[in-house]
Amino acid sequence: MSHNVLDLSNVYSAEIFLPTQNLTKLDIRSNMHQPIHFDKYLIYPDHVFGVLSELSFLGIDMMPVPQFGRGFSQITNLRVLHFQSCYLASLSNTTFQMFSYFVQKLSLTNCRLKAVRTDVDVLLPFPNLRVLDFHGTFMHLRRALHLLHPYMYSNFTTINFGHVSDDSIDSSELPFVTTITPDMMKYLKTICVENLNLSNNGIVDYEFESLFTFDRPECLQTLSFKGNRLLLLLQ
Q: How far apart are alpha carbons 169 and 84 in whole angstroms?
């Protein structure tokens, strides 16, 4: 059902998925058109999706200010949540609160139309997360790193924060040209992560006891800094 013109706000009837309640994968990405207004809420039709309690994968478009109702809490087997056609403007502490506690992979990529505002506890509803992919979602590296605070001393397969900063969202508060500080790394450094991508984020330097001070460096298998202007002095 992906790559069609199925508008989330008016196409889905309450009964549409009743005959297919045992679905384990639903992909309805790339259906929504770019909105005109980026401050407008979209209330996702949770009563439609709530009958799909067996879903383990949900692929869906992300609108500027999304609201997911109680029906999504009934998708108790959900493990992979993938957003596409992303027009996101704001993530609040309540955005994901109705999704399953057991989600292991969250993919929210290529949200490039606005500088995404983020509340600090956005990811609290996902304590079992093992893959986090924000590649190409312009929120700034500092904001992305601070969202990791629920995962101190946890294990991750992949954290992809590639190109979350961009010169198109450069500001005095969140400059594109970035020096990594200990404060920015205070959560990430505690995480046992196998694959870490910090590429294309305007990184030019790092302060003492910041970038390469992982508590569990033996966990790292791949590490990407490509596309930055970082001079690594190895002794």
A: 21
